[in-house]
Amino acid sequence: MRAVRFHERSGSDALTVEEVDEPSPAPGQILVDVEAAGVNRVDAVFAEGGFSEVYPHSRLQPPRLPHIPGSDFAGTVEAVGDGVRRFDVGDRVFGAGLGAKFPGTYAEKVAAPVSNVAHLPDGVSFESGAAIGHAGVTAWHSLVHHADVEPGDYCLVHGGSGGVGHVAVQLAAALGSRVVATAGSAEAREVIRELGAVDALDYAQSHDDLRESILDATEGGVDVILDYHLDDYFELDIEVSNLNGQVVVVEGGETGIDHQHLRLALWKDLTIQAAGMFNIPDMSAALTRLGRLLEDESLTVEIDRRFDLDEASEAQKAVENESYVGKLVIVP
Ligand SMILES: NC(=O)c1ccc[n+]([C@@H]2O[C@H](COP(=O)([O-])OP(=O)(O)OC[C@H]3O[C@@H](n4cnc5c(N)ncnc54)[C@H](OP(=O)(O)O)[C@@H]3O)[C@@H](O)[C@H]2O)c1
Question: Which part of the chain is the Enoyl reductase (ER) domain (predicted)?
């Protein structure tokens, strides 16, 4: 089969398409004929060495080389391993969380543990299934599992036009919260409003102006914040939070946080929670729920562009360097 691989940990430039042996499903795994693969920032991190080099205390070890990248996929089950009861040959499926411990999805076929897979409803395209995985599970893990968003809550999503952000906006709105999100362009802010945000704000304004805009838009305070620029926004998050507010962090940046921030947070009894989707032992329940939300159109996933397998390096660099709304997918 054709697959994208890297032989050295030197980032997105190292991705090449090669002819490799087809995987065979181990016990508890299924073999999937891949129709589409989602592209994520994390795939670039793994191509640079995996979390254990970028974050030395992570549990994730760098993948053995050569390695196939790619977290997300959708396709059709071609074979099932021993002990698999939930899936049959021919089922439409989608999944997430590969490309770290397991070989990834930038390939014509992938072997996936059933804990990382759900059935793809008939009305949902393979591309949508492939695009939702990593972003959707992260948004779910953050807003439902960690923050337990309630109807009526004010929810702030920093960067609401990104892969995670645009799903988080819709999920928080579907849960009944009033969502305010930020984005860098007027077009992206328009899309965010169409996706259900009560307001969309320009993140490029000064922090003082942004704080005032958030407080105006939220009747004076936010209950739940999803942050992936903690180095930029932690102080702002504390300032705009309501008493007993929650800040869920999915990425932190490298500098700018010190113990004084926790000292400030105690005045509001804030809960600060770090969420890592690769720590979820079984993603299938969240994936199943996301699939149903896609099916009944409570959730859409914006697909900005499609790439061939040969263009994986270009796709990966676009995720790292370009601005667009939603997700990119590779179609093998
Ligand atoms: N912890 C986890 O398990 C987990 C899982 C998934 C993702 N993540 C992390 O979460 C982050 C988002 O992932 P993603 O897949 O959604 O990435 P993405 O699709 O590239 O989205 C990034 C978003 O950040 C916005 N942005 C850039 N600079 C900003 C700023 N100064 N203030 C506010 N927003 C800003 C971008 O908006 P513009 O395009 O308008 O600049 C874009 O909407 C990444 O850092 C990723 O590593 C963590």
Answer: 11-330
Q: Following DSSP, what letter does each residue of 6-43 receive, concatenated?
A: BSSSS-GGG-EEEE-PPP-PPTTEEEEEEEEEEE-HHH
For the CA of 204, the closest atom of ligand 1 is 31
Chain region(s) in the chain for CATH 3.40.50.720? 138-277
CATH class of 2-120+302-331: alpha beta
d(CA 195, ligand 1 centre) in Å: 17
pLDDT reported for residue 50: 61
Which residue's CA lies nearest to atom 35 of ligand 1?
159
Q: Whose CA is nearest to atom 31 of ligand 1?
A: 203
Residue 307 and residue 329: Cα distance in Å, rounded? 6
Q: How far apart are CA 120 and CA 310, in angstroms?
A: 26
CA distance 207 to 203: 8
* 227 alpha carbon – ligand 1 mean position (Å): 9
- List, by residue range, all CATH 3.90.180.10 domains of the chain: 2-120+302-331
CATH number of 138-277: 3.40.50.720
Q: Which two tokens stand for residue 131?
A: 């695009």
Residue 51's pLDDT is 63
10-residue block means of pLDDT along the chain (332 residues)? 93 93 97 98 82 64 86 98 98 96 95 98 98 98 96 98 97 97 97 98 97 98 95 95 97 78 93 92 96 96 97 96 96 97
Nearest C-alpha neighbor of 62 from the set 70, 74, 50, 72: 50
Q: Select from 166, 228, 277 the residue to mutate for testing ligand 1; criterion: most ligand atoms less than 8 Å from CB.
A: 228
* Residue 189 CB less than 6 A away from ligand 1: no
Nearest atom within ligand 1 for CA of residue 135: 6
